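Standup, Tuesday
Yesterday: got the pipeline producing structure tokens again.
Today: sanity-check two examples.
Blockers: none.

Example 1:
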Amino acid sequence: MAPSQKAMLETRWKPLRDLDDIIEMERMPFKQRVSASTTYDLIRSSADRFADRPALTTLPKGTPSSGGRTLSYRDLFDTVTRTANLFHRLGLQRDESVSILLPNIAEFQFAMWGAEAAGRANPINPFLDVEAIGAIVRAARTRILITLPPGHASGLFERAREACPPEVVLIAVSDEAVVGDAIDFSAELALSRGDRLDFALPATDNAIAALYHTGGTTGKAKLVTHSHRNEIANAWQSCCCFALTRDDVVFNAAPLFHVTGSILLSLAPFSAGAHVVMGGPDGFRSADTIASFWNIVAGYRISVFCSVPTVYATLLNSPVGQHDISCLRLAICGAAPLPYSVAERFFEKTGTIIIEGYGMTETCSTSIVNPRDGERRTGAAGIRAPYQDLRIAVLDDAGGFVRDAKVDEAGALLLRGPNVTPGYLPASANEGARPLPGWLDTGDTARMDDRGYIFLTGRKKDLIIRGGHNIDPAIVEDALVGHPAVAAVAAVGKPDGYAGELPVAYVVRKPGYGVTAEDLVAFARDRVAERPAAPSDIYFVDALPMTAVGKVFKPTLRLDAVRRACLSLLSPDLGYALEDIIAVNDSSRGTVVEVTIAGPPDEKLADIVRGILSPLSLHFDLRWGGENVVR
């Protein structure tokens, strides 16, 4: 075994309790930690070490009784190799992409890692409309697109055909004969060799491996580039943070078109020799998978899984029954703040802690994590992952660096490290992304305490996060601005106890139009590029708040959306006792809701407010005649 591989295996699993442990680990340069140059090398290394151990199990319907199919590490590597050779035979060049328009099935995994070996992988959200898919395909320089067959109920092939230029080769995944002008994936795969590649791998780990869509309006696309080094590094970082080993069984029900599904819950466990169990084509969107979850945990001895707050809240309503879930050692939560009450109830129900973390497409996934073996501070995103450089910076109005923030002073969250993207496509999207050379502006604001714990305080970027799904507000705005009654529109996220946030839109009507909120919701629902982006509410206003340079000032709208959400939740129970609600931005706590109740302090009413607002993951102050008694 090469020295670098030996070092990686011996030091990877040391418990990380605090920042001092991470600093000690970083005394060894990162390049000595991992010897692989490509993700293909990483999977090949696991096939060499864990040949006959189970690598991947897929549940066709997301339930234990649906006939799971299991591949060993030898089988997985053989199929990835065959897939890479197939793509190369079909003309894929190193700077071209294989776009993957599939649900969570085994073929997604084969296509992902095969494409990264032969060219670039471009996973696409299958819920996007034709125009959005077409924009991504063009931006990614797609040579091949792999999807479901013609006539499938999903309509994916038909959308792909309409979205793609004629020169794009379409491959269909089907258990039956494929009709039309698509290539049958299974038949062609059988013609490819699985013992070695028919081409040379990239000469450097800086070569681009994947392009992930991260927002953009209709007709446009913004893609995050991942190098092989980025993805290998984050697989390693994730293994460190969550102590993944060959003994783990990782349940993956996150969408594979997102880095949580492809990197954190696939490449990372593959690099450790763990067993990945995929929870059906629809993942946690499937009611059957949710209903069967504890049965899956017991039957497959699941030890680790990851999801979003909405799923954890739903699982609390699913009885464990007589299932033995003692195998479950760790649950991971990301994408949105986890309400403390949900984490507490989940531990009471299962005996399993939920580890909160922070990551983004631009860092391949894991960046900040509450230490599994150390202190998990309430409200904190955690401490930085090993080799993840982090700083909180004060920026000027133009996004330029002014100085580093002081302890507990809020500022822009900047990241640097081997897992951080080299940039966006198109190149114009990189403007303003790096206030300092090498440092990426995440678009989030945060503060750091004296022990290195990071507390998110807000968001500069406009993304709406619904159930862990990032929604570009421009998608909502583009859909609504086409209505003849709409003079101006701005979309923001409204807090929601289940989904985290829901899209809402503030609309200025043109004079003389009597359009209703219901009319505009229906209009938008038929025109948004992705269904979750449909606004839940429309708020009519006389004018939108503007900056001095004429841009819509969305922080004001976000605070108003928070106020409206809290008002609608509290009014039915508090009635006339509710005097006032305002939402403000606090420099250290983020968004704070100030609730004023008439009369003297009443602990019964205070409990009602706590119970109603705690699922929203908001800070709140309760006032009685100006006195703050709950914080």
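Example 2:
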Amino acid sequence: MGKLIGIFLLALALCHLSHSEQDWWENGNFYQIYPRSFKDSDGDGVGDLNGVNEKLEYVKDIGMKGVWLSPIFQSPMADFGYDISNYTKVQPEYGTNEDLLALTERAHSLGLHLILDFVPNHTSDEHEWFQRSVANDSYYRDFYIWHDGVINSTTGERQPPSNWISQFRYSAWEWNEQRQQYYLHQFGVKQPDLNYRNPNVVEEMNNVLRFWLARGIDGFRIDAVPFLFEVEIDPQTGTYPDEPLSSDISTCPDPDDWCHLNHTFTNSLPEDIEIIYQWRELVDQWTSEHNTDTKVLLTEAYTSFENLMHMYGDGLRNGSHVPFNFEMLAGLNNKSSASDYDYYVHHWLSNMPKGVYANWVLGNHDNPRLASRFGAQRADLMNIFLQTLPGIAVTYNGEEYGMENGYVSWEDTVDPQGCNADPTTYLQYSRDSERTPFLWDNTTNAGFSTANHTWLPIGQSYADNNVAAQLAAENSHLKIFKQLTQLRQSEAAFIDGSYVSVVVKNVLVYIRAAETGDKYIVVLNIGDENVSLNLGTLFDDLSAKLEVVVSSLHSDIPNGQIVNANSFEAKAYNGYVLRLTN
């Protein structure tokens, strides 16, 4: 095969059903909408459900199957919906329960499936359950994690029962004056952790799922799974154990920062996975009893690779349909090599259990946008990568047209992670930049809202770069994305095809092929130098002529052009989808 650098080949039978037998979510495209920033229908500066409804045709048009809404339940908005005060009522600034039902019905009429964000780890401190727990109501007394604290032997003062740290910085314990005890909050002070060792809590949350399933919701994205359980209290000491310092304390010397500790007692316990199995049984039972389309679970878990694999199931019980693949999201950055990209693909495909589907997540509301994290020059390459891998693709709204992070000043910062920092360091913590409003057109506020002031500033230039402009252009990031999703839906190679890859210098090349239909070669030049490739030496039975089907915006190769497989030049930062021709 000639002398190649970094060759790694793996042929893998990936899918287990034919195209006609696949369920709606299998090999599906999921689209995350951050409703607060998607479309404001009533001019108050905040996106809402009617705004989402208004733009559902767009979501359908870009090739999505499932739509996941970030939290829209009633909340005091201390963490913008991740602090829920009522799980069965829509937050008024987003609309009403009737608006949500109308959105669900419209989505179904378009062939879309609607998924809600389920936040089970904690409630708002304004939730009735917490208020009644504070009041020592007999039923709700142990709905949350409470403790008297310990007396400092030196000072004689009462202090938290352990050194546990909130992910939003500082102690994870907060004193409640009325109850005269500390409560646990692994996120914000206004987000007390529920006690999942109390079976009544489990059943109440099961009832939340049943409530929305009965109203036509198609599934749930389950938030912060690794935080659901904490170690049980030590019966001998009557308190909780301190967590050890991080193994590499030099990378996180600040004792108030979550990363300062190794969270052996508060994160990724076996019980976290067990309850996912229980929730899967619940939605499967609902699907069977009501003869509906499959109701799916998507799980958010920044945890070990082994735990992500267990999230699928244990061989006897099923778990998450889509345990979000954060290994790739966390592992890749703008310095990563083609070999790194290839490693994360093979690592997941080679280790996932039989009978499940891979999934690929490159961006979300908690991480800098793709075009900002990997460089705007790689915007199309990253989408080509995402849309041509086997399995399920998850896209954060805006990534389809190369949206970048918006600038948010300290004065405009609202994310509690940023606000808990200071004017010099807030950008390291704040997630506001990836949550700035969607850029629809070149009118006021990029067509997001007619308000004088939006909840976050637009944060970037939009006069010539917006959805309307990209749809009108002869070619654009958005049109490239639509071409990719059309391929995923229509070509057997991308529906149930194998994946065989080669790395040459800093270029990842892989073939997608099925028993029927055309064969495709994907070429991704991750690096900053053009690379000449003799593709004919990389794969057997490769024809000399290839047709360009999709390529990056600045590839300078029009779709339909025939190129020579034996002398193909991959431009720096560009991606290509090539079809084998006879």
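Quick observation on example 2: Residues 1-19 have pLDDT under 50 and may be disordered. Residues 488 and 495 are 6 Å apart (CA to CA).
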